[in-house]
Amino acid sequence: MVGEARDPEGDAGPLDGVTVLDASRVLVGPFCTMQLGDLGAEVIKVERPGEGDQTRTWRPPAFGEDEGDGEGAQSAYYASVNRNKRSVELNLASESGREVFRDLAREADVLVENFRVGKMAEWDLDYPDLAEENPELIYCGLSGYGEWGPDRDEPAYDIVMQARGGFMSITGVEGGAPVRIGVALADIGAGMYATQAILAALLERELGDGTGQKIDVSLLDGQAAWTSYMAANYFASGEPPGRMGSKHPNIAPYQAFETRDGYVVVACASDAFWPRLCEALDRPDLLADERFETNEQRVRNRDALDPELDASFAELATAEALDRLDEHGVPASRVRDMAEVFDDPQLAARDMVDEFDHPTAGPMRVPGSPMHFSRTSTTARRHPPSLGEHTEAVLREYGYGDGDLTELKNMGAIPE
């Protein structure tokens, strides 16, 4: 429980002493529990014997082999969301495996799962079952649609959530096909809400009577919440917003412009930047035009403004445009790929790449934690684990001896 430090490795994080039982897989749950692990929690990842998290097979690419098919290689997808965890192979389809899980849950502060709604209840592993023996437990269930409502049993995938949650209606160019955002935003968004809710529940437990509670987070709810000002625009106007490419419905200019050899993104987020942009582009005529004097006027007259700016940027190379914009203090950037992003000295200064020497896959690099504290740490203490790497070590910590482990292997609860 909270306050009992269990991880001797690395610097202590703000959640040092918190134990998380991670019964999740793929992305939404593992992203949540990785954040808790980054914050110092002891995360025990429960995986199916012989198979593990589905994302272990989502390769290439993989670390450890050029083709990603060598023994000991580790999928890049899996590695991206599973650092700071220990892996335990446990067969929850068997009663003996479920009994071991109950032993682990009896000592846990937090449990995270994303099985189909109702599956944990079928196994007698739902919150009411586990809270009987561990009333302090904070239990977070993640699903596509939540634990109640007419669609609670429907399958959920990120692209379906991005479509159903409205994001694909506002992503892409005007008049073009709907576009999926390039990362699994629905999963990551729900994973962030789950982390936030778990931290709030931990605080409430400490400030209250010490009792835990159940948390229910859904991907669709997260997408609806993340529509934020786009939904508010609809509520205010009665008109559903459409696709605008890189443009912003409430700010102009706030978009990408094509140059002679690429693209430049410009963000005139206040009227103070407008004269600077006109000066950078040597367009005093635009600055003198009353139609563009304020942001509201520029938004209303976007159809007249955009062709003028398009023409000015089309005459410039990307580097020249960026030099001019920087000289005049206009927020701007070229559109960078992943290689450029992670070659950025700013990100290097912020330690935004974690590097591991994995025992079988060799060197690996993944994005680091964006959470920085003045006193506590978010150190990457553990590499993303191999399947079942810590099964026996963890169970021994919970009181299982040699004979117990042999019996569990014979009953099929853990692998041979």
TrEMBL record:
<keyword id="KW-0808">Transferase</keyword>
<dbReference type="InterPro" id="IPR003673">
    <property type="entry name" value="CoA-Trfase_fam_III"/>
</dbReference>
<dbReference type="GO" id="GO:0008410">
    <property type="term" value="F:CoA-transferase activity"/>
</dbReference>
<dbReference type="InterPro" id="IPR044855">
    <property type="entry name" value="CoA-Trfase_III_dom3_sf"/>
</dbReference>
<feature type="region of interest" description="Disordered">
    <location>
        <begin position="360"/>
        <end position="389"/>
    </location>
</feature>
<feature type="region of interest" description="Disordered">
    <location>
        <begin position="48"/>
        <end position="72"/>
    </location>
</feature>
<dbReference type="InterPro" id="IPR050483">
    <property type="entry name" value="CoA-transferase_III_domain"/>
</dbReference>
<dbReference type="Pfam" id="PF02515">
    <property type="entry name" value="CoA_transf_3"/>
</dbReference>
<dbReference type="InterPro" id="IPR023606">
    <property type="entry name" value="CoA-Trfase_III_dom_1_sf"/>
</dbReference>
<protein>
    <submittedName>
        <fullName>Formyl-CoA transferase</fullName>
    </submittedName>
</protein>
